[in-house]
Amino acid sequence: MDVSTHIEAVHAEVRRRNPGEAEFHQAVTEVLSSLGPALERHPEYVSGGIVERLCEPERQVAFRVPWVDDQGAVRVNRGFRIEFSSALGPYKGGLRFHPSVNLGIVKFLGFEQIFKNALTGMGIGGGKGGADFDPRGRSDGEIMRFCQSFMTELYRHIGERTDVPAGDIGVGGREIGFLFGQYKRLTNRFEAGVLTGKPVAWGGSHARTEATGYGTVFFAQEMLATRGKSFDGRRVVVSGSGNVAVYAIEKVQALGGRVVACSDSSGYVVDEDGIDLELLKEIKEVRRARLSVYAEVKPTAHFSARGTLYDVPCDIALPCATQNELGRDDAVALTKNGVLAVAEGANMPSTPEAIEVLRGAGVLFGPGKAANAGGVATSALEMQQNAARDQWTFEQTESRLAAVMRDIHTECRATADTYGGAPDDYVLGANIAGFLRVADAMAAQGIV
Ligand code: NDP
């Protein structure tokens, strides 16, 4: 069978076997559309069924999460853990708590995670999990009870050598603390390496909180440098105002850029003075309030509940909120305003149509599986520190993160070049480089 027929057959089978899982189909399509040149050179991956096996998770767990709210009412959510690939190490990937979570979303995230984790060069497989629980407006007590119930099922499936979850949308340090406490109680083990993203005081790594946002900016910095440019003096928009967005903003500002807009799911804020990061952190992390409060407090800012922050003229855009938030029209607006680079801090934030527009216009485009790999890379550094019962300084950890991001950038370019693409075809480079590392391991480990 020729390579394109093989890829189309796998693709058709994924669609048939996973009906209605639009985001999972989208993630698979994006990877498979890059793999032709790699499979042409490695026919043994076709005969070894590597791509078919990669598209089917090794294990999928779905479970009931019952809990009691502050009014005494019983609530029921659905939890998931998709253990996608253990070819390179224990399953590794975050937990997302958001009402939109369903099987297809968790599978898309788990699938992306396989290649992202491979790109880091560290010994971690791919997985993802979460629940359709909405933490917004819930008290600390409700969050704790939900996390405890979630872990009461999840603990059977995880372990520092099996599967190591971390945070994602709706899961930060507070939730990781509650999850870890329940795991410890159920197992009677202080197994620090079972979860990453822990607070620094008891097993967490310095720079993990910052890592995804910082790493995205490091990746964008590398892309800009190939064209003799930098963040210094540039206008930047960053979507979202959660963990990834906040620390992307922090690093852009440290590099001399001016972040003029950010957002949440209710709208976006424009502040031509540059986003006041201390105020933003206070509103989002301490008060856990809506972004509109920023404009109520800061006279130079205005909040808009309609439209999109991608209409705000900028040199660099960092989508750091959620999947499919940057569509075709946004990409057209960005290119009309002369955007130089787009680096994805979120997972799959740009639609395929948007990516086509950006790349067609010669914009530097860093796909999430490369650009946001700094978070999981630093999680792997946290696992190393836990295994050694050690803790590195912030500076040591950040410099390891910066080196990982530089290496990923270099590898993407070199791989794109080797497999017939332009060196700045980061989509091709990231997909093939990640795939080859996993495929080599799978081929060596037999049909398992
Ligand atoms: P957080 O929960 O901390 O923040 C998410 C942010 O995105 C919030 O500001 C949220 O606003 C906003 N948001 C959510 N949905 C929408 C929407 N439909 N439109 C506009 N804004 C929206 O999550 P993280 O920062 O951790 O994650 C953000 C992205 O980065 C996700 O795609 C995640 O998978 C990815 N990522 C995260 C990593 C990490 O280490 N945390 C690692 C790699 C990738 P609101 O408060 O209104 O919901």
Automatic annotation (TrEMBL):
Gene3D superfamilies: Glutamate Dehydrogenase, chain A, domain 3, Leucine Dehydrogenase, chain A, domain 1, NAD(P)-binding Rossmann-like Domain. One of its GO terms (cellular component) is cytosol. GO terms for biological process: glutamate biosynthetic process. The active site is at K128. Keywords: NAD, Nucleotide-binding, Oxidoreductase. It comes from the Bacteria. One of its GO terms (molecular function) is nucleotide binding. Residues 205-446 form the Glutamate/phenylalanine/leucine/valine/L-tryptophan dehydrogenase C-terminal domain. The record marks D168 as: Important for catalysis. NAD(+) binds at T212, N243. Substrate binds at K92, Q113, K116, G167, S379. Belongs to the Glu/Leu/Phe/Val dehydrogenases family. Homohexamer. This is Glutamate dehydrogenase. It comes from Streptomyces boluensis. The lineage of its organism: Bacteria, Bacillati, Actinomycetota, Actinomycetes, Kitasatosporales.
